[in-house]
Write the structure tokens for this entry.
Amino acid sequence: MDFAFDARTQELRAKLLTFMEQYVYPAETTAHEQRLRLKSPWDTPAVVEELKAEARSQGLWNLFLPDAEHGAGLSNLQYAPLAEITGRSPHLAPTALNCAAPDTGNMEVLAQFGSDEQQKRWLEPLLAGEIRSAFAMTEPEVASSDATNIETRIAKEGDEYVITGRKWYISGAMNPDCKIFIVMGKTDPDNADVRRQQSMVLVPRDTPGVEVRRAMQVYGYEDHSHGGHAEVVFHGARVPVENLVGEEGGGFAIAQARLGPGRIHHCMRLIGMAERAIELMCRRAVARTAFGKPIAQQGVVQEWIADARVAVEQLRLLVLKTAWLMDTVGNRGAHTEIQAIKIATPRTVLDIIDKAVQVHGAGGVSQDFPLAELWAAARTLRIADGPDEVHQRSLARRELKKYL
Ligand SMILES: Cc1cc2nc3c(=O)[nH]c(=O)nc-3n(C[C@H](O)[C@H](O)[C@H](O)COP(=O)(O)OP(=O)(O)OC[C@H]3O[C@@H](n4cnc5c(N)ncnc54)[C@H](O)[C@@H]3O)c2cc1C
């Protein structure tokens, strides 16, 4: 077993680490200050466009896409350590590199299932970082972790689809640069096969009948840098039948295909978030003194730091193994491991960030350190892209099958 990075990964890692130090970390404060002066907080601060231009000129662009025709052509194993580094600044770095969710998953869907016309109209500007996109599946009225529950109707009328339904927590949709929604709904609600009822259609933002109603919050954060998480209502919005992605009844399968890579990308970035939290925890612990000695010399704090290091090393190995499996036996073959990392990573990283918050005292929950926002972001990943319990149920069933 070889744990070393190959030459291409090493080169990209070195470049990316320098890019983070030179451009991304300094831009964190600038982005925040610029946002306060924007006409709308959902607009993109100028510094983000500058970061994108710089990243692109350095070849740090579309690294997530294994398809060499459209993306960088990296394997999952090569991309994993790079995504981890971007996770250290999760509100800026993934966007700077055009590697941010939900655009990454949407680009994968368009690259894999989009028609030539759809690719030209939507994939090309997304790959160029000129527009953003959203993926609209979850609905407030039904338990959406079970996608067969989705109620949004996609009804065929002549040469159009008419879309009626209400979605929420649609990431990115508040950003006016988000020009296209991939909408999941039912074209055939009476089909006896509940997994063939759904389809996906492309709905341009400016389609009459599309209402981006409000920004949902995450523990009080509006997540401006991610373009928010919107409630979106489709009031009989009409699109041409050519906007169907893949085939009618294929929506469920496309959603499954989309989620595998999305889940591992989240886990890779979460490890970067944990590394940032450990760094902040250690810096704070050596810099502050309480009751006559540095906080770093308190046994309990040392335990937290040691446990955090052990946990991160374990997680990273499991994520890298999963990436390697995805590359070698495919996403289906890596199903159990993808579920394992999606269960283990958010909750472990959440605990690490929580300890870092504790070491910072009041500062930890304040706006002066990134920890509170990192915690809120990590917490959502125990729900988004499949709640922990859904993955546990499915993993346990697979495990039990061996004994039945
Ligand atoms: C910040 C954020 C961003 C998001 N971005 C998007 C997006 O861009 N697009 C999009 O479509 N959606 C998005 N979502 C929604 C997310 O994917 C859903 O919230 C998730 O799939 C769960 O669906 P639900 O909220 O309807 O929960 P429900 O399905 O109602 O489930 C609630 C709870 O029930 C329990 N549960 C469910 N099933 C089982 C089971 N089989 N066994 C045991 N317990 C179970 C779990 O504890 C689960 O958390 C986002 C969510 C958040 C928080």
